[in-house]
Write a structure and sequence with these properties.
The protein is of the alpha/beta class. It is 42% helix and 12% strand. The chain contains 5 helices and 4 strands, in the order αβαβααβαβ. It has helices at residues 21-36, 49-63, 96-112, 116-139, 165-168, and strands at 41-47, 70-77, 151-155, 176-177. It has a 4-stranded parallel β-sheet, with helices on one face. α1 packs across α2 (49-63) and α3 packs across α4. The longest helix has 24 residues, at 116-139. The radius of gyration is 17 Å and the shape is globular.
Length: 182
């Protein structure tokens, strides 16, 4: 298993630097190639925004010339595919930024051990990253990419109200796995 971090999220890059999900997918594939070369087959996966990137990586590989790795499956871990165009995800109205920063502060507090200034910086940085990813999702249309020939596996928490399975079928020539909304 290889994990690819976003250099902006980890603090290694001063700015987000990507203009599209396709650019992020290209960078991730380049990093993967640098790390392991070109294996004959891959299983790709990603959580949330990363699931959308993993699907874009699979689409790039599907459109690539012979010799590119094939993709066995894409694991979409609570990925926001199927969101309404221009809506991104987790937008709850005018106070969304404040609510997001509050949630991030709560989740990130254990990482800074009581350092309030570090928590302020980390929370603001994470919120900026979240907003940058949301902007890319707003502009992204996965149906404009080449269909993939691999299975798509939609993994969501049991209490999820998201019903994205129908929106995944047009993205693949293979099977979509997941659970239907209750």
């Amino acid at each position: 298993v290889y994990a690819i971090d976003d250099a902006f999220l980890t603090g290694d890059a001063a700015t987000f630097g990507f203009g599209s999900i396709d650019e992020v997918a290209a960078e991730a594939l380049a990093r993967l190639n640098d790390a392991i070369g070109a294996p004959p087959a891959l299983t790709l996966g990603g959580w949330s925004y990363g699931g959308v990137v993993a699907l874009a990586m699979a689409a790039r590989l599907a459109a690539a010339a012979d010799g590119a790795p094939s993709v066995r499956a894409v694991l979409l871990l609570d990925a926001p595919l199927g969101q309404s165009a221009g809506r991104g995800f987790h937008r709850d109205g005018a106070d969304a930024r404040g609510a997001l920063v509050g949630t991030l502060r709560e989740q990130l507090a254990p990482l800074v051990g009581g350092d309030a200034a570090a928590l302020d910086d980390l929370s603001a940085h994470a919120a900026a990253h979240f907003e940058a990813c949301n902007a890319l999702l707003d502009a992204h249309d996965p149906t404009a990419e080449p269909r993939v020939a691999c299975d798509l596996v939609d993994v969501r928490p049991p209490a999820s109200e998201c019903a994205f399975l129908p929106s995944l079928a047009p993205l693949t020539d293979a099977t979509v796995h997941g659970r239907a909304a209750a």
